[in-house]
Amino acid sequence: MPIGSKFMEPTVRVGKIFGIELNLGYSWFLIFIFATVVMAMQFDANFPEWSPVHQFAWGLGMSVLFFVSILGHELAHSIVAMRYKIKVLSIRLHIFGGWARLGRPPKTPAEEFAIAIAGPLASLLFACIFGIIWVLSEENNAALQLLAGQLAWINLILAIFNSLPGFPLDGGLVLRALLWAVKGKYTTATKIAAYSGQFMAATFMFTGLLLFTRIGLSGLWFIIIGYNLFSSSRAQLKDATLRENFKAFKVSDLALHQLPQVGTNTSIHDFLGSYVFGSNPGCYLVVDDNVVVGLVSPEQAKIIEPQLGDFTTVNQVMTPLNNVELIDPETEIMMALELMDCTETGQLPVVQNQQLQGFISRESLINFIRTRFQYGTN
């Protein structure tokens, strides 16, 4: 699935690749086991003389390579995004594929086009690589031929599926980028791509229903995929409508708030005991000689083991200010909210002429939108 497919669920952090945090959703483990069993059954059907352990080992290998291909798809998105100086916060693999979580949305049609098209191109490249292996192993190794041939087809299908012109698929993002470039209006382009996504979703669900009535349970997967596409495209359509209704409102229209400060050498024990206790600002400015150097939250501090609280200081767990996404007072409020969604943060620093003006919170944004809806957006 593409960069915009925000399938949210609890995840397990497994490490980093190219400096990008890799997380596995709980549903990933289910689909990995299922894929391994299905692929092992193919080796059972083609090589009945093999032992069950041998068949399972090859099925496991094929399943691993399949998810390596999906990871490669998401890495392609990520690497191109980083070339545009967009921070990639993490890559998440889940039951529907994956999601490269970007630190901010693309700012131009060219950025979005390049980032979106990279995924299907990577899948197509994997299809070619496995196809070449299939050709070269045709007479030498029947098992390798089966493995490579299956993976070539799977990656080709992934490339074609993700290229369909409907949001939130990569093809839908490409479509939005092209319409954005031609029409010059992001919200209009988003609406068209979202409507196209709903059409694709309806097609998948209708196909799944036909398959379910004629073949059986295999049609359920089409219905599930279609429902996921429909939900994502509907959410995007709602966001586009909100952005259009509130495009006249900027961050400067909202009251900014200031955050309490804490010194860099404050211990975690003192921070949690003296600063956080009895208050809930969500985040603190970390200052060094009256200069703001970062942000720290109680959640970051609580990661430290209690017995280490006296020996660990806030500057060891804080987020450096250079790594915090900054916004301008003239930023549209819906874009600020979208940026908070990307970074999964509850507040963002507002900076003008390199001077910190204050902070805007998700709560204040949502309250502003709710109030305007109640009394009119004008």
Give keywords.
CBS-domain, alpha+beta, 11 helices, 56% helix, 378 residues, 2 domains, four-stranded mixed sheet
Describe the structure.
The protein has helices at residues 26-46, 52-83, 109-136, 142-162, 170-183, 186-214, 218-245, 268-276, 298-302, 333-343, 362-375, and strands spanning 11-17, 20-25, 88-94, 97-102, 261-263, 284-288, 291-296, 319-320, 347-352, 355-361. The protein has 2 domains: 11-163, no CATH class; 251-375, CBS-domain (Roll). Strand 9 and strand 10 (355-361) form a beta hairpin. The mean pLDDT is 81. The chain contains 11 helices and 10 strands. The longest helix is centred in the first third of the chain and has 32 residues, at 52-83. It is an alpha+beta fold and 378 residues long. The strands form 3 sheets. The protein has a 4-stranded mixed β-sheet with strand order 1-2-3-4. The protein has a 4-stranded mixed β-sheet with strand order 5-6-7-8.
Major sheet attributes: 4 strands, mixed
Could you spell the SSE succession in H and E letters?
EEHHEEHHHHHEHEEHEHEEH
The whole-angstrom Rg is: 24 Å
**What order do the strands of the largest sheet run in, or round the barrel if closed?**
1-2-3-4
Q: Helix fraction? A: 55-70%
Low-confidence stretches: none
Strand content: 5-15%
What is the structural class?
Answer: alpha+beta
**Mean pLDDT, rounded to whole units?**
81
User: What count of helical segments does DSSP give?
Assistant: 11
Task: Give the helices and strands, then pairings.
Layout: E1 11-17, E2 20-25, H1 26-46, H2 52-83, E3 88-94, E4 97-102, H3 109-136, H4 142-162, H5 170-183, H6 186-214, H7 218-245, E5 261-263, H8 268-276, E6 284-288, E7 291-296, H9 298-302, E8 319-320, H10 333-343, E9 347-352, E10 355-361, H11 362-375
Parallel strand pairs: 2-3, 5-6
Antiparallel strand pairs: 1-2, 3-4, 6-7, 7-8, 9-10
